[in-house]
């Protein structure tokens, strides 16, 4: 079925390209800060191709268009691109070119590549310059061609900003600034431009609401030894925030003055910029007069290692969040088949359980609630026009999280609603085994996530299956649900960032199996890395679990578990009962006792579970 609306928009875009002398036009999923999730104002790529996932780049030329996205979104993209005339390029699949490779092959000598330089990171823009230099490709990066086509575009985000109390932040702005500037100086710079939104919120101890579920405000930061400048829309600041900024000696400039400000900076000194998040536009302005120190922003690693106050709040609120999800699972299993429950009403009910927690301030991302085949789409989101009714059979995957005044949570459970096949049980058991193996990891300090990923993936690989995403990512603190630089991922990619897992880093643990047209399984906990014993071999480390939600034993086939994996499973289940049961009513508590096997005594070959 043709999508005439998208086809007409692409036709209008091609007309504008001709008028501007642009042969290929690139539209990423990004705002002016290279954010993963963006405000509706910045969803230009979705406007022109209908694909709504959080990662993807659209390239348009006169004869066609292509969308590049990763394995999390292949099934979703295939559906959403239907009838648009846009071709899906499945990133990292064998034989699929990267965008750069595609442009190298298809662009002719001296042609022009266009993009809005405010939404392309400098590092990516420099990469295009280098790889396309041989063909003498010109770059037109100062125009947003959508401006005259998207006439009903949403307003630019300008939500309220709040100060995060130091009692919850754990460190003052002055302490954080001192740490940051010390690292800036070690890198040989005396000035620092910070453009990443969640890093800015962390450093200034502010929180906003300019991106759905991400408590960030559109802003930039500029720092010298003597001065701190915050570029933000002054209209979003109330008296309390203004007084806080004055008290901290932070100079406030209007958000849209950043280009003019950077263009007028004196040429002496050296300024640190992170080309992963600094836009190509700002980078070009700086490069005209400034000496650039192109390094990773020191805020990223400092933010990733949670301080003792943050960790204490997280432990408390992750337990409360686990209680909410456990109560939801009990409610769902008790009511399935007795009343109509849809993917949407189930997600709403789970949100209600979270809202009962006094510290809850919202969701950390829109709930992914997929029934049966819908769960095979990793980032599926039900809509009023397209959703399933849950029945007392099959699996329901729910990936969800909350924003709390003291934590950002992320947890997935796949719930048995009724009869399931032996194959589904085999898949579920493998996913649970992988998650539990990662939970119980022990390693020597110096490992990165690439060293550890195999622990979660091995049971899935043993069946000749895989999941087309990483196993884990960092999680923010009252910030973005996806946070770096830490991650768990097996694949070596030239240039991909790898960091050592440090004590205090939190990370998700979420292996899965996704069978298109049939089912999807994911089990996800959040953990924190901690130091273990230290001896003549070095510093050993382990993970401390924050998430305490039962694994669904109805989907476990112990024939596929080793004795050690059984010990991990029953050990986790019993700890779930011990931690969560005090917060439940009598009926819920009795169900959890049965669900976790808390009454049973299971002796294993390798010890006692």
From TrEMBL:
Protein's UniProt keywords contain Cytoplasm: no
Peptidase M24 domain sequence ranges: 314-528
Record's keyword terms, sorted: Aminopeptidase, Hydrolase, Manganese, Metal-binding, Protease
Domain of life from the UniProt record: Bacteria
GO CC, any one term: cytoplasm
EC number: 3.4.11.-
Name of the molecule in the record: Aminopeptidase
UniProt domain Creatinase N-terminal: residue ranges: 9-151
Keyword Transmembrane appears in the UniProt entry: no
């Amino acid at each position: 079925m043709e999508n005439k609306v998208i086809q007409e928009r692409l036709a209008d875009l091609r007309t504008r390209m001709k008028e501007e002398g642009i042969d290929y036009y690139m539209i990423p999923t990004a705002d002016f800060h290279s954010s993963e999730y963006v405000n509706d104002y910045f969803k230009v790529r979705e406007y022109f191709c209908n694909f709504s996932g959080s990662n993807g780049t659209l390239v348009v030329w006169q004869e066609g268009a292509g969308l590049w996205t990763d394995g999390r979104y292949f099934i979703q993209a295939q559906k959403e691109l239907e009838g648009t005339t846009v071709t899906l390029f499945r990133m990292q699949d064998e034989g699929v070119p990267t965008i750069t490779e595609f442009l190298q092959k298809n662009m002719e000598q001296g042609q022009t590549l266009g993009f809005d330089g405010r939404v392309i990171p400098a590092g990516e823009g420099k990469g295009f310059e280098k790889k396309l230099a041989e063909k003498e490709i010109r770059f037109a990066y100062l125009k947003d061609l959508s401006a005259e086509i998207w006439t009903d575009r949403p307003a630019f985000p300008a939500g309220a900003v709040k100060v995060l109390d130091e009692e919850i932040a754990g460190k003052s702005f002055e302490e954080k600034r001192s740490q940051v500037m010390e690292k800036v100086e070690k890198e040989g710079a005396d000035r620092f431009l910070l453009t990443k939104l969640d890093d800015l919120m962390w450093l200034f101890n502010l929180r906003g609401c300019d991106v759905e579920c991400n408590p960030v405000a559109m802003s930039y930061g500029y720092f010298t030894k003597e001065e701190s400048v915050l570029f933000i829309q002054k209209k979003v600041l109330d008296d309390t925030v203004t007084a806080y900024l004055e008290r901290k000696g932070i100079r406030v400039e209007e958000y849209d003055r950043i280009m003019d400000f950077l263009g007028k900076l004196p040429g002496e000194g050296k300024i640190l910029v992170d080309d992963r998040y600094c836009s190509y536009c700002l980078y070009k302005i700086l490069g005209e007069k400034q000496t650039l120190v192109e390094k990773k922003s020191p805020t990223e690693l400092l933010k990733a290692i949670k301080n003792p106050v943050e960790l204490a709040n997280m432990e408390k609120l992750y337990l409360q969040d686990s209680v909410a999800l456990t109560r939801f699972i009990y409610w769902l299993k008790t009511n399935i088949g007795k009343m109509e429950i849809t993917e949407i009403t189930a997600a709403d009910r789970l949100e209600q359980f979270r809202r009962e927690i006094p510290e809850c301030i919202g969701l950390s991302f829109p709930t992914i609630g997929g029934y049966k085949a819908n769960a095979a789409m990793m980032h599926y989101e039900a809509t009023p026009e397209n959703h399933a009714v849950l029945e007392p059979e099959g699996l329901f995957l729910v990936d969800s999280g909350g924003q709390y005044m003291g934590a950002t949570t992320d947890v997935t459970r796949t719930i048995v609603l009724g009869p399931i096949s032996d194959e589904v049980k085999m898949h579920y058991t493998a996913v649970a085994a992988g998650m539990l193996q990662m939970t119980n990891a022990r390693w020597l300090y110096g490992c990165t996530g690439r060293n550890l990923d195999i622990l979660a993936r091995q049971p899935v690989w043993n069946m000749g299956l895989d999941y087309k995403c990483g196993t884990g990512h960092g999680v923010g603190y009252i910030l973005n649900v996806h946070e770096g630089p830490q991650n768990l991922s097996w694949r070596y990619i030239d240039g991909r960032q790898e960091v050592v897992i440090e004590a205090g880093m939190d990370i998700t643990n979420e292996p899965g199996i996704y069978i298109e047209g049939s089912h999807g399984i994911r089990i996800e906990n959040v953990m924190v890395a901690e130091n273990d014993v230290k001896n003549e071999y070095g510093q050993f480390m382990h993970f401390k679990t924050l998430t305490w939600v039962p694994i669904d034993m109805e989907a476990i086939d112990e024939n596929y578990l080793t004795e050690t994996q059984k010990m991990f499973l029953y050990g986790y289940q019993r700890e779930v009962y011990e931690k969560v049961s005090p917060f439940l009513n009598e009926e819920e508590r009795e169900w959890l006792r049965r669900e976790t096997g808390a009454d049973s005594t299971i002796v294993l070959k390798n010890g006692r579970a």
